[in-house]
Every structure is written in C-alpha cells, then in structure tokens.
C-alpha cells in the first residue's frame, strides 16, 4: 500500500513538473514576441528590408521615401534624383498606421534628414475617415520628431485615380486636413500632386496609369519627379 502511494506521488510530481514547464514555455515573453512578430502584417517585407540593410547599409542623413505601393513601385527613384541620396522603403498595401508600427525598424535606423511620405489612399479604401487619416499622419509626425526632431517630413497628397474615383471626396477632405496641418509647421511640407493628375475634364488622366487604373506608369512617375524635386533637401 505504501509502495503504491509512493509511486502515485512520484507520478503526480512528474505530471505537475511537466505542467509547470509547459506553462512556462507557453508564457515565455520571447516566444510570445516571436509569435507576434511572425503574425504582424508586412513582416515579410520588413524582414527583406532588414536583410538588404545588413549587406548594403543605407546611408544616414539621406532622404527616405516611405509609404505604400506608389513608393514601392518607384523603381527609377535613384535615377530620377541622381544628385540626392535616396532610400526606398515603400511596401505595397500599407496604411499610415503601418509606417508608425514599423518606425523602429524602417525609419530610425536610417536617421534620414528628410522623409518623403505617401500613404492614405489605402486607408480611405479600407474605410477610414479623412479625420482618421489626418490623425494617423499627425501621430507619425509626432513619433518621428520625438526621436529625430530635425527631420523634415514631406507629404505627397493622396492621388486621384480612376479605380477609386468614387472615394474622391474623402480623398479631398483628407488632403485638406493634412495640408492645413503641414502649413503650420516649418519642418513639414505638402506636395499637392492631386490637381496635376487630372485632365481638363476634371477626371484622372488615363495616360499616366497602368492597366489596373490605380498605379502609375512611367509618365506618372515623370510627373511626380517634377513635382517632388523642388521639395527635396540638398
């Protein structure tokens, strides 16, 4: 009888020890952090940027182009501004909140003297209000300037495009809020590409878009290059 009790107690202790070990493993902060990182949106794209930076570190004090697919697809960026040191950190489908989320990994390691930022269209398309788009942009500005107070931030207005023309009034409203905000801060600037992308009929110019009627072709980027160049830091 005593032997059976001893064997039972040993089994109970082993089971208790295993349960405690399993609970510790599940609750491990490092494991939870790894799982959260793996589940984060755009993690694949951010990891690719980080991997590229290990073999080809970006220059500090350069001009960082940041934002959604219109930045990511600007494949001629370096050639369009050969007299500037530019870095492309565009990731397609991103919203303003995504650039805030990854500021520690995308922005601060570059320590840019200027950020040229384009995002907001995906936010509107995803159902966010113009006020929310503005609030997120203001949060991005505050996040950057808390660490890099001298960095200038230049916002490219949300562009009109045929594919999302039904959202144009919300786009106009978001642009107006951000333009007013940037006008009050000498470290900020607003590049209004919107009217330059419209034809005489007040509609988006079809010749500057690719077949999806959302993204720009080479003519569209030539237009943006002319509009952006005067705002770039030397």
Layout of helices and strands:
Blueprint: H1 2-26, H2 29-39, H3 43-55, E1 63-67, H4 69-72, H5 77-80, E2 86-90, H6 96-101, H7 103-106, E3 114-118, H8 121-125, H9 130-147, E4 152-156, H10 168-183, E5 188-191, H11 218-228
Parallel strand pairs: 1-2, 1-3, 3-4, 4-5
Explained architecture:
It is a single chain. With 234 residues, this protein is an alpha/beta fold. Helix content is 50%, strand content 10%. It has a 5-stranded parallel β-sheet. Helix 9 packs parallel to helix 10. The longest helix is centred in the N-terminal third of the chain and has 25 residues, at 2-26.
Kindly summarize this structure in a few lines.
With 234 residues, this protein is of the alpha/beta class.
Question: What are the salient characteristics of this protein?
Answer:
234 residues, alpha/beta, five-stranded parallel β-sheet, 11 helices
Give the overall silhouette.
globular
Total number of strands? 5
Total count of helical runs of at least 4 residues? 11
Structural class: alpha/beta
**Major β-sheet profile:** 5 strands, parallel
């Amino acid at each position: 009888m005593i032997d059976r009790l001893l064997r039972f107690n040993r089994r109970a202790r082993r089971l208790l020890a295993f349960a405690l070990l399993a609970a510790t493993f599940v609750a491990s902060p490092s494991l939870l952090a790894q799982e959260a990182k793996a589940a984060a949106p755009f993690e694949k794209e951010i990891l690719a940027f980080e991997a590229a930076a290990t073999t080809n570190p970006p220059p500090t004090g350069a001009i960082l182009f940041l934002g959604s697919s219109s930045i990511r697809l600007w494949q001629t960026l370096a050639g369009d501004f050969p007299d500037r040191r530019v870095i492309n950190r565009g990731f397609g489908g991103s919203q303003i909140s995504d650039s805030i989320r990854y500021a520690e990994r995308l922005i601060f390691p570059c320590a840019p003297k200027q950020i040229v930022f384009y995002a907001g269209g995906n936010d509107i398309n995803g159902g966010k209000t113009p006020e929310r788009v503005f609030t997120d942009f203001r949060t991005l500005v505050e996040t950057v300037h808390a660490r890099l107070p001298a960095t200038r931030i230049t916002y490219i207005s949300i562009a009109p495009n045929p594919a999302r023309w039904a959202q144009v009034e919300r786009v106009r409203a978001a642009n107006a809020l951000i333009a007013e905000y940037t006008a009050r801060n000498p470290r900020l600037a607003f590049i209004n590409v919107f009217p330059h992308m419209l034809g005489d009929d007040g509609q988006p110019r079809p010749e500057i878009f690719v077949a999806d009627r959302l993204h720009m072709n080479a003519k569209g980027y030539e237009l943006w290059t002319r509009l952006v160049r005067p705002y770039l830091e030397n």
